[in-house]
């Protein structure tokens, strides 16, 4: 049996279409929009390169549902059809080579850094820990009508994505953004129908999903990215996560992507990961294995995969249906073709370290370093996998000043 047989195998969804292989380019924040929050020619070139690179499914970086709720500079917003032709060009580029392109739709909630958005909103007015809160405006609790309006905005963005030619959307319910805040008892302390019990905390995500389904066609895919856990005391737990995923399966969600952590606990960046987990490569493999014993919903497992052998073993064991990879695609947009052809057996991702603890310990430069690689691809330039981190730091400071490290995320 060839090592890459399962990776190359198509996956057919029940009552829907097929994805040509088991490789998913997971979302990465590009930060490449115009000042009016629109796609650029660099975005089109980047996604065309990824599509040519052989990935079965590409998931975009955050696309925000309105221009008052921006997570970072350079976010794309899709809230009306004024510039739908630009989004059609993006979809055409990203769906070439028989590739699926799903738009990740998101609202940051209170994770809006000072100077990016004028206001921070959340399920409840619960501050971040003091050391983190200083970077964020004080959040206020959403009114119920605002919650209903946000649900309608998610559905509107998804409908526009379908009209533009994207083959699906992924609802971002992980990493401490607004939906994740609603799911978390740490951040959601409401006493109305949107808070309290897990069933109530799930209501926001449930109604977003159902609103999207009501506004899109039967062939349009709707997936969800969700935490296995927030890895925080009194936060969203693995037990909570399994309940929510079972409910999403019952509702008919097409695909679940498993992640974990928030910007308070950055497991998603590979920080604070146990040595035993690193040895197995996939950060959330143990959770996925247990989930697969309880549900049949297709899943993507993202985070930590570095060898083709381990990817194949995870697929063979039934622990996951798709392998999600993000950072390797930033230094090699053709990673899927190389992996499937046998040219690439190990994905070497070196830590981005400057020797400055304040920068290195928080993973701040890793985000900007990879964004710089995406920008090079978008400009038609070759990537620089060996680009020295200290030069990346100097370039970032020269272009943006120190405050850039307060305004970047994955």
Tell me what the structure shows.
- By secondary structure, the protein is α/β, with parallel strands linked by helices.
- 38% of the residues lie in helices and 14% in strands.
- It has 15 helices and 13 strands.
- It has an eight-stranded parallel β-barrel, surrounded by four helices.
- Helix 1 (41-52) packs across helix 14, helix 4 runs parallel beside helix 6 (198-215) and helix 14 (364-378) packs across helix 15 (389-400).
- The chain is globular, with a radius of gyration of 20 Å.
- The two termini are 37 Å apart.
Keywords:
OxRdtase_FMN_N, 15 helices, 13 strands, oxidoreductase, two-stranded antiparallel ribbon, 2 domains, eight-stranded parallel beta barrel, TIM Barrel, NADH_flavin_oxidoreductase, globular, disordered C terminus, single chain, Aldolase_TIM, 410 residues, 38% helix, FMN binding, alpha/beta
Compact summary:
By secondary structure, this protein is an alpha/beta fold. It has helices spanning about 40-50, 85-95, 130-135, 145-165, 180-185, 200-215, 240-250, 275-280, 285-295, 310-315, 325-330, 335-340, 355-360, 365-380, 390-400; strands at about 10, 20, 25, 55-65, 75, 100-105, 120, 140, 170-175, 220-225, 255-260, 300, 320-325. The longest helix has 21 residues, at about 145-165.
Strand order of the largest sheet: 3-4-6-9-10-11-12-13
Spans of at least 5 consecutive residues with low confidence:
266-280, 406-410
- Structural category is alpha/beta
Q: Tell me the total number of β-strands.
A: 13
Mean pLDDT reading: 88
**Main pleated sheet:** 8 strands, parallel, barrel
What is the 3D shape?
Answer: globular
Euclidean distance between termini CA atoms: 37 Å
The oligomeric state of the chains shown is single chain
> Count the helices. How many?
15
CATH topology of the largest domain: TIM Barrel
Helical coverage, percent range:
25-40%
CATH superfamily of the largest domain: Aldolase class I
CATH architecture annotation of the largest domain: Alpha-Beta Barrel
């Amino acid at each position: 049996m060839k090592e890459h047989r399962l990776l190359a195998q198509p996956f057919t969804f029940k009552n829907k279409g097929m994805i040509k292989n088991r490789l998913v380019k997971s979302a990465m924040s590009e930060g490449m929009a115009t000042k009016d929050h629109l796609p650029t020619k660099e975005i089109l070139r980047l996604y065309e390169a990824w599509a040519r690179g052989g990935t079965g499914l590409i998931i975009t970086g955050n696309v925000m549902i309105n221009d008052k709720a921006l997570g970072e500079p350079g976010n794309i917003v899709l809230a009306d059809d004024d510039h739908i032709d630009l989004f059609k060009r993006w979809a055409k580029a990203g769906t070439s080579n028989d590739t699926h392109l799903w738009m990740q739709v998101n609202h940051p909630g209170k994770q809006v850094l000072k100077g990016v958005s004028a206001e921070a909103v959340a399920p409840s007015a619960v501050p971040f820990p003091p050391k983190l809160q200083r970077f964020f405006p004080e959040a206020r609790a959403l009114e119920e009508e605002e919650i209903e309006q946000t649900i309608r905005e998610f559905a509107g963005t998804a409908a526009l994505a379908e009209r533009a030619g994207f083959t699906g959307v992924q609802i971002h319910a992980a990493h401490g953004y607004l939906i994740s805040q609603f799911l978390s008892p740490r951040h959601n302390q409401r006493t109305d129908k949107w808070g309290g019990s897990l069933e109530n905390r799930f209501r926001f995500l449930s109604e977003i999903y159902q609103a999207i389904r009501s506004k899109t066609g039967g062939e349009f895919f709707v997936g969800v990215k969700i935490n296995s856990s927030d890895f925080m005391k009194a936060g969203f737990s693995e037990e909570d996560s399994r309940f929510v995923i079972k409910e999403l399966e019952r509702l008919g969600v097409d695909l679940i992507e498993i992640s974990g952590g928030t910007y308070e606990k950055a497991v998603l960046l590979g920080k604070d990961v146990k040595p035993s987990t690193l040895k197995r490569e996939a950060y959330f493999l143990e959770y996925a294995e247990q989930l697969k014993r309880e549900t049949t919903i297709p899943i993507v497992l993202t985070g930590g995969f570095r060898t083709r052998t381990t990817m194949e073993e995870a697929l063979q064991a039934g622990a996951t249906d798709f392998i999600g990879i993000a950072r390797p695609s930033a230094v090699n947009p053709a990673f899927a073709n190389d992996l499937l052809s046998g040219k690439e057996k190990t994905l070497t991702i070196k830590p981005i370290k400057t020797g400055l603890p304040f920068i290195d310990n928080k993973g701040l430069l890793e985000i900007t370093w990879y964004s710089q690689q995406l920008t090079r691809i978008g400009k038609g330039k070759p990537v620089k996998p060996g680009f020295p981190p200290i030069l990346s730091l100097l370039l970032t400071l020269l272009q943006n000043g120190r405050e850039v490290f307060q305004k970047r995320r994955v």
